[in-house]
Design brief:
Keywords: ATP-binding, Cell membrane, Coiled coil, Kinase, Membrane, Nucleotide-binding, Phosphoprotein, Transferase, Transmembrane, Transmembrane helix, Two-component regulatory system. This protein is α+β, with helices and mostly antiparallel strands. The chain contains 10 helices and 10 strands.
Length: 442
Amino acid sequence: MSNLLGRFRLNSLRSRLMLLVLLAITPIAIVTVLGGLREREAAIRASEENLKRLTALAAANEAQSIDRARQILVDLVSVPALMGDTAGCNSLLSNVLDRNEGYVNFGLIQLNGEVSCSAVPMLHPVNLGDRSHFKRAIAERRFIASDYVFGRVIRKHTINLTYPVIDRSGDVVAVVFAAMDLAGLDTFVNDISMPPGSILETADASGNLISRRPDPERWFGKRVTGEMLDAMRGPYDRALVVRGEDGIDRLHAFARVGSPTLTDYTITIGVPTDLITQVARDAQFMSLLGLGATTLLALLAAWLAGEKLIVQRVRGLTTVARRIAAGELDTRTGIEYGNEEIGRLAAALDEMAENLQKKEAARGQAERELRAADQRKDEFLAMLAHELRNPLAPISTGAHLLKLLHSDNAQITQTCAIIARQVEHMTSLVDDLLDVSRVTRG
C-alpha cells in the first residue's frame, strides 16, 4: 500500500501530469453538468407548455359535454309535454334519456323541490329543494352545473345540470335537470395516452372530484388536498409542482372547464416530475458516463505516457548522474537527442560527462608529468649532493693534517679552523638540500 501511495505523490512528474489532465477536464465536466441543468429546465418548460395545451384541450372537451347537456335542457323546456301530465312528462324524459349516452336520468323539479317526473321511475317521492344548484337555477335564472352529488333517485355518482323553466310571463315555474354519469364525463382521456404515473382530475368549486383518471370510481366525491384546491382556484396560466395523495410530486397545469357562466369546475393534468426530467437526466448521465470514460482513458494514457516518455527517461538520467558523481566518467545516457527538454537535458549531461572525462585525463597527464619532473629533480639533487660532498672530505682531511703538522703555527691553526667551519657549513647545506628533496617526494 505504501508503495502504491508513493506512486501518487504530487511531487512526482507522473502524478503532476495526471493532475494536469484532471484540471483540463474539469471545465468540460462543469459545462456538462450546467448543460444538463439547462436541458432539465428546458424539458420542464416544454412540458409546461405541452401540459397547458393538453389541459386546455381536456377542459374544452368537458365543457363541450356539459354545453351539449345545456342545449338538451334548453330544447326540453320548449316542449309542451314537459309541463303536461306526469305520464307524458315521464315518457318524454325517458325518450330523451334513451337517445343520449352518458346520462343516468332527466327530471323536472317543481318550485317546492318535489321531483314531479323522471326518466327513471321513482320508488318513492324525492325532494331536491335543499340542493344548491336547484336554488341557484331559480335565483339566477340560468343554466347551473352542480357540485358533486350522489343521486337520490338513481343512487350514482353524478353532477346535476339544471335549467329554469320560465313561463310566458317571465316567471320561473320549474327546473329541469339532467343527471350526468361521472364515469362518462371525460371520454377525452380515453383517447389519449398519458405518461405512466400521470393523473387527470376535475373538481368542483368545493374541491370534490367529479372526474379522475386513472381509477375514477375509487375517487369520485373525494376531496382534493388543500394545496391542490388552492392551486385550482387560479390563476390558470401557470404550472405548479404539487405533491399528490400518493406522495408523488407532479407538474400540474390547470384550466377552467368552460366559461364562468357554464361551470365552476377546474381540470388539471399532472405528470410526475421524475418523468419530465428523465430524458434530460438520461442524457446528462450518458454525457457524464462518456466524460468519465474519457477521463479514465486520459488518466491511463497520462500514466503510461508519463511512465514511458518521462519517468523512465528521467530515472535513466538520474542513474547516469549518480554514476558520474561516483567517478564513472565514461557513463553516457544513451538517450536519443531531440528538440525537447529531456533530450536536451541528456545531451547536456553527456557533454558534462565528456568534459569531466577530458579534464580528468588532462589532470592525470599533468600528475604523471609532475611525478617525472620530481624524479628528475631528485636525481639532480642527489647528483648535486654527491658532487658537492665528494670534494669536502679531502678538503677537511687536508686541513686537519695541516693543523697537525703545524700545530705551533697560530696562523695555520686559525686558517685550518676556518676551513673546518666552512666544510661543516657546506656539509650542512648538502644535508638540507637532501632533506628538501625527501620532503617534496613525500
